[in-house]
Every structure is written in structure tokens, then in C-alpha cells.
Amino acid sequence: AAAILTTVGTASAQQVLRVGLQDSEPGVIHNDNQLGGRDIDIWDAIAKDSGLRVTYVFRDNSPQLLAALDEGKIDVVGWAVSRTPTTEAKYLLTDTIFPSAEALLVPQTDARMYRGLDDIKTLKFATLKASTYADYLKTNGITDVKELNTDSDVLKAVS
Questions:
Q1: According to a count of CB atoms within 10 Å of the terminal CB, is the N or C end of the chain lower?
Q2: Strands 34-36 and 53-59: what pairing?
Q3: Mean pLDDT of 24-38
Q4: Cα 89 to Cα 61, 67, 93, 132, distances in angstroms
């Protein structure tokens, strides 16, 4: 958190930190007009520790979050940003705040065993637009990749 805040400036109780997030679970959960979830909990704790007030700015995907940062509409991207040569050259990236597990999501009726790339090359894929996942699939010979704007859109496509 300290590394993030040094890029924003000197903290004071009057400052508002505009945190860009993707509005999707489990990072952001809406419950009776209250925000919660993993990302909200992390940034609320950072705000409390630093004395900053936090306001959340929601975008559909990582490219939109990075564009908002570039345009000065947000102060930090508070959602996972893939560590690529491009993002490393342009932005100050923190160390991993929390690890996550990635998974191949298939319909429950699909009982095939998937052990490697050769097993999945004929499948149709849905993933987030401009993500490292899309790039990875394409560079590994998987041609049927549909890039969508939100996690919800990806889940709908799989369903």
C-alpha cells in the first residue's frame, strides 16, 4: 500500500483517492446498496491506514481501467493488471497482493480430461478482451477465441 500511495502523493485526510475497479464478483459485491467484496475490503483498509478517503470508479475491463488512469480519471487501478512488458514499461506495478488460481471453465456436462494445450485446441474460448489470456491462447495455436468486455459476458458465453 505504501508503494501505491507514494505514486499518488502525500496522504492527508482531505484527499480523495479515486480507485478504478472492475465491477464483478468476488472483487466487488453489491448487497443492499452497500459495496463489499475482496477489492473493496482491500482498498477500504488502505484508506483507513493512510487516512485517505476512497471513491470507486467502475469500468468494464482492464483496458478501460488503464485508459481511465492514462486520462487522469482515476488515481490507481485497484483491480488485477497483467504483468506484461507493456504494462511494466508504462506503469508502476506492485508485488502480488493476493494469489489467484486460474481455471478452465466448461459446462458441467463436459466430462473430458484436459491435461494440456493439445487437449483444448479444438475448443471455443471466451475470455476478457485484450487480456493476457487471449494473447496466450492465440500464440499457442488456439484460433477460436471470443474476446468479451466483462466477466459476466464471458460466463454467459460459456453457458
A1: C
A2: unpaired
A3: 84
A4: 20, 15, 10, 16
Q: Confidence band (pLDDT; 50, 70, 90) for 1?
A: very low
For residue 25, the tally of other CB atoms under 10 A from its CB is 13
In 12-139, which ranges are continuous DSSP H helix? Answer: 38-50, 62-70, 85-90, 117-120, 132-139
Helices first, then strands: H and E counts in the chain: 7, 7
The Cα–Cα gap between 148 and 155 comes to: 10
Q: What does pTM read for this prediction?
A: 0.62
* Phi and psi at residue 80, to the nearest 5°: -55, 130
Per the listing, cell 479444438 goes with: 122
Which one, of 93, 95, 105, lies nearest residue 133 by Cα?
A: 105
Q: Tally Cβ neighbours within 10 Å of residue 148.
A: 19
- Provide the Cα torsion 57, 63, 68, 71; round to 10°: 180
Beta bridge partners, 158, equal none
Tell me what percent of the residues of the chain surpass a pLDDT of 70.
86
What are the two backbone dihedrals, phi and then psi, of residue 47, each rounded to the nearest 5 degrees? -60, -45
